[in-house]
Design goal:
Elements lengths: L8 E8 L3 E2 L9 H16 L8 E5 L14 H8 L8 E4 L5 H14 L9 E9 L5 E4 L16 E4 H6 E2 L4 E2 H11 L4 H20 L15 E4 L5 E4 L10 H5 L19 E11 H7 L5 E10 L8 H13 L8 E4 L4 H11 L12 H4 L3 H19 L3 E8 L3 E9 L4
Parallel strand pairs: 3-4, 3-5, 14-15
Antiparallel strand pairs: 1-12, 1-13, 2-12, 5-12, 6-7, 8-9, 10-11, 13-16, 15-16
Helix pairs in contact: 1-2, 3-12, 5-10
Length: 416
């Protein structure tokens, strides 16, 4: 494809909430609320006129998390609450841990299509999750034949959060896949705990240097200053899951998996949060005077063996690099989701990642992993850190339940 034929698509604005600890400060917000907070900030940062946004693409993995909120309307309600045109449609996408990435990929695809197929030029991408509020349900066998609106008595109680962390077809679960992949790659429990300690240490250092504390780190984050569903005022400026820990503490925690690699201290936190981005055709952005600095170079989405789900970033990053015509050495900043330390370390070993340029402000082991928000959280953190470090090419990636991976490569057009 000739360069002038290639779709030039940019991220004109992006923002993320702080990530809240499970049952913590953000747990009394609906995912829709967190998504709207992030969307409003991304719109503000981009300067895009609301009436020019052509579509909203949203992601929320766990549904029916908040009594009284209708999660199936997540992207549509988000667009309406952000006062977009009534005619602006909303689409809900779901690729589990890659759902946030998928909102951007779908936006890229809509913009890249010929106008005769889809004339979208500006798309709001948003992902949010309140994992604290994922319900348990009684699995009644079926509706009653006598009265459709009644249910046959009986059925098991099911925790929807735990059900989503299992992969029944592959006879495994997310932490088991990390344990198996890490073991195949020669990862040790001590390496997992050392890495978890590093993740928290980097995240603590980033907060000390954050823009809230007079520094220039974590400009991806904006403060949540709102009233939650219980009427309680909330003001949050930091990732709540980050804690002070040590290798000595982490080593004492029990292993949950057959090979002992995964413990409560070296797995990503169950958490709450939201993130959003304004994805725009470059020519349209230039016409409207919107920021055009960060261009989406390419993306990759790939499948891997489900029992080693955690290696998904390997295939996805390699695919994205090939599509962009780049080599791995060209990428000077990586954000690779830390679903589990064992999983991340497997990817690090397989790709020979340079840890000095990967997850430099900590990762999900410290920050948390609100599923549908994570891809957008990674991208937003990546973009602001690229600017801070003067990096030309950056890549964000995550493994995905069921044996997949997703990756997006960003180019800072202001860097030579």
């Amino acid at each position: 494809m000739k360069d002038n034929d290639f779709p030039h698509v940019v991220i004109a604005g992006a923002a993320r909430t702080p990530v809240g600890l499970k049952c913590g400060t953000l747990s009394n917000f609906a995912p829709e609320d967190l998504g709207v907070f992030a969307a409003e900030e991304a719109i503000r940062r981009s300067g895009v006129p609301r009436e020019r946004i052509d579509a909203t693409i949203g992601a929320q993995v766990y549904q029916f998390t908040t009594p009284g909120s209708q999660d199936i309307y997540f992207p549509r309600n988000g667009g309406l609450r952000c006062h977009l045109n009534t005619e602006t449609p909303g689409l809900l996408v779901q690729r589990i841990c890659g759902s946030g990435f998928q909102t951007v990929i779908c936006a890229f695809q809509q913009i890249a299509l010929p106008d005769a197929v889809d004339d979208s030029k500006i798309v709001l991408s948003v992902g949010a999750e309140t994992m604290s509020r994922v319900p348990r349900v009684i699995r009644s066998p079926r509706r009653s034949g006598a009265n459709f609106w009644e249910f046959v008595e009986g059925g098991d109680v099911e925790d929807m959060l735990l059900a989503g962390l299992n992969h029944d077809l592959a006879e495994t679960a997310m932490m088991l896949t990390a344990d198996e992949y890490g073991t195949r790659m020669g990862v040790t429990r001590r390496e997992c705990d050392e890495f978890a300690d590093l993740s928290h240490s980097r995240a603590r250092a980033a907060y000390r240097n954050s823009h809230f504390n007079g520094g220039d780190a974590l400009r991806s984050i904006f403060a949540i200053d709102a009233t939650d569903l219980s009427g309680r005022p909330v003001y949050l400026t930091r990732d709540e899951c980050v804690r002070k820990t040590s290798l000595e503490v982490l080593e004492k925690l029990p292993g949950f998996t057959p090979n002992g690699l995964v413990s409560p201290g070296n797995a990503s936190e169950i958490s709450d949060g939201g993130a959003a981005a304004i994805v725009v055709d470059r020519a349209e952005a230039e016409k409207l005077g919107l920021p055009t600095r960060y261009e989406i170079m390419s993306y990759g989405v790939a499948g891997v063996e489900p029992r080693v789900m955690g290696r998904g970033p390997v295939a996805a990053i390699q695919q994205a690099l090939a599509r962009a015509g780049l080599e791995q050495k060209d990428i000077r900043l990586f954000e690779v989701n830390e679903a589990f330390a064992a999983q991340y370390l497997g990817v690090e070993k397989e790709l020979n990642l340079d840890r000095e340029i990967t997850n430099v402000n900590g990762g999900a082991v410290a920050i948390g992993h609100p599923l549908a928000a994570t891809g957008l959280r990674l991208l937003t953190d990546l973009i602001y850190e690229m600017e801070r470090r003067g990096v030309r090419y950056g890549c964000a990636s995550a493994c995905i339940g069921g044996g997949q991976g997703a990756a997006i490569i960003i180019r800072d057009t202001e860097q030579a």
